[in-house]
Description:
Elements: H1 2-19, H2 22-41, H3 46-65, H4 67-70, H5 73-84, H6 87-91, H7 99-115, H8 120-131, H9 137-150, H10 156-168, H11 174-184, H12 191-199, H13 204-213, H14 221-243, H15 254-277, H16 284-294, H17 302-311, H18 318-331, H19 339-355, E1 359-361, E2 369-371, H20 379-388, H21 392-407, H22 415-441, H23 448-474, E3 494-500, E4 509-514, H24 519-529, E5 539-543, E6 546-547, E7 565-570, H25 573-581, H26 588-593, H27 598-608, H28 613-625, H29 630-641, H30 646-650, E8 654-656, E9 663-665, H31 667-674
Amino acid sequence: MYIAANSLMTHAFQIIACSSDRASAAEQVDKVQRAFILRMLSFSTFSKHLAAVRETNELLKRSMESQVDDEGHSLQVNVRWLQEHGIVKELLRANLHQKQYVDQVQNVLKKLTVRGSLQQEHLEMLWNLTEKVDTFEAVKNNVYSMLGDLAGSLSEEQLNLMFEKFQSRSEWPLADCLKLLDLVAQLADSDQQCKQKVDDDESAPAALHLLKALLPHPKDSGDLQDMLVPTVDVIVARMEEICAQPLLLPGTPSGAQSMLKDNLLQYADFLLWASTKGDFLLTTDLAVRLWKCLVMQGTSCQDQGYRFFAQGLLRFEPDAIEQLLLEMESTLDAQTLGLHGWTCFLAYFTRVNLQRDMMITDTDDSPRFAVRGQVLVGKEFIWKLVLTCENMTLYEEARNYLFRLYTYVVDERCLQDYVLQLVRECLDRMRQAIDLVQLMSSLPMLPPEQEMELLASRQALARTLDLLLVSSNQLPVRTMPERPMHSASTEGQQISITVLPWMSGTERFSLSVDTNSYISVVRQQIAAKCGYSGDPASLRLLFMGRELANDARTLAMEDVKGGMTMQMALKSQLKLDEDAARPPLQTVPVLLAEQAGSYELLLELADAFPQDATIRDITSQLLNLMPTFPDITQRLAEALLGGQNASALSELWTEAGQDDEAASVKAAHLKYTIE
C-alpha cells in the first residue's frame, strides 16, 4: 500500500510541476502527504506507522530539494506542521526495537537536526527510553545509535543537555555508561571540561572515558603533560580512597563490589593511557602508592592489581621499577602467592636485572634469557617460592625458572661455577632445615605454630632435594663421567633392543644391552655391531622422538625397555664443532659428591624420615646418581679384609638405641652398603 501511495504522490508532483511551477506542485502534494501521514498514524499497526515515517522522510526530502525554488518556504511550512501536530513525538513512542523503522526515524531526526529544528523534548524522549528499567536492550542500543548519528549536528545547548543527563545517572551499570560515552564523545569539544569533572570528582570514571575519546589524535606533548600529570595525582588519590573502603574486602556481596571494582579498573586503565598519551613515566612515589592500594590492601582487586603492574611495567620510571621489585620482595607472601602475582613479579625481576646488565634477552618481552652473574636482585624471593609456596603449578614453574638462572649463562665457561654454586646453596639450605627438624623432633610436645614450622622445614628439605634431582636430570652434559654413578657400578637388567641404521642397504639388527649402561657405551656397541670405523661420538641415537645426547645418563634413566627400537644417524660436522667447543662439564651428582659431608647428609636424611616417602625416594635417586660413597666401600673392605668381628662390621649400618643398649638399624645405610 505504501509503495503505491508514494508512487502516486511522486507522479502527481511530476505532472503538476509540468503545468505549473515546482513550488506550487510541492505545496499541493505536501498537503496530500501530510494528510496521509496523519491517517497512517491514527492506526496502531506497525506497517501503518512504518508507512508514516517513510512518507515523513519523503516530505522533508522534497522540501529540502525545493529550497532553491521557494527559498525554503515549503521546508518551513512542513517543519512547523511536524511540530504543531507532534509528529516526531508520535514516531518516537513505539517500534524502536524494529531496525527498519529505526533507520527511517533516524533519517527524519537527522534532517531536522541539520535544519536546526530538532527540539530538546525529542532528545528528552530518547533519553527517557534509556532510563526506563523495562526498556529492551535492543531499544537502548538503537537509541544510542541514533544519538551517535546525530552527534555532529547537535547544538551546544543540546550537547550540554546530553552531558548533564549522563552525569545525573552515575549509578547506571558501567556497561550502559560506556556505550553512551562512546557516542557522547563525538559531541563534546572541550577536553578541559572533562578534566574539570575529574578534578571535582563529578562522575569521574565517565569523564575519564570521555577524556580519552576526545584525544584521538596527537597533540603537543608539553600541553598534554601539563594537563594530564596533575590529573594522574588526583586519580591515584581517588584509587586510594576506593581501595580503603570495606566494600572491597573479600566476602562482601558481589553486587556491592561491582561498581567500585569497575571504577577502579577505569582509573587504572586511564593512568596507563595518560602516561602513554602524554609521553611521561609514572614516578616512584606514585608506583609505591599504587602498589599499596591495589595489592597490599588485601582487597578483592588484588589479581587486577597484579595485571595492572604487569601491563604497565614500561610506564614506570626505571627507579620506580626497582623500588617495586623491592616492595614485592618485602611484602608478598611466597607461601600463598598465586599465578597472577608470579607473572607480575617475574616481569619486574627480569626488567630490573636487564637494567643492571645482569641478564640479556632477545627482546623486552622474550621468555628466553641468559645471565651474566649470580648477584640477581629478587633471586632470594624465588628461592622462598620454591621452598614454601602452596600452589604446586607455581612451585614447578618457580623451581624450573630457578634452575635456569644457574644454567642459562652468557659465558659457558662460567657454567660449571654457577652449577657448583647451585649445589652448594642447596646443601646449605638442606643443613639448615634438617638442623631445625631434628631440634623440634626432639621436643616432647610442640605448640601449633611450631608444628607448622616443622612441616615447613620438612617441605623445604623435600623441595631442595627435588631441585637437585631436576638439575641432575636436565643439565646438558655430553660426556660420560669419569666416576660411574652408584646405580651404574653394578650390572643391570639384560634387554634386547632393535637398532635402525642410517646406511642404505643395511638391515636393522638386535642388540643385547645392560640397562645400567651409559649412553656412550651403547653408542660404542652399536658402532662396533655395524662396523662403523669413525669416531662413535659422531653417531646420533634417536629414541621416542628425541635424541639420546646426554652421555652421563644410562638406558634405565632414559626409560629404555626391552623390545623398543632405537634409530641411528650421523651428526653434522657443525654439530661436532659445537660440541668440541663446549667446555667440559661435571654432572650435578658428581659435583654433589665432591662436597664435604654430602653423602653423610643424604644418608642421614634417608634414615631420619622413615615415614616420609618423598624425601626417602628423592634421596635414594640422588645417591644412585652419585658415584658410590668411597667411605662405605673402604670401611667395608677394611672390615672384611682386616678380620674384624661382626659387631665391628655392623657399626656401618647400626646406631645406638635410645636406651644405649639396643641397636637400631640404619635402613638406608644398610641398603646402600648391600648394593
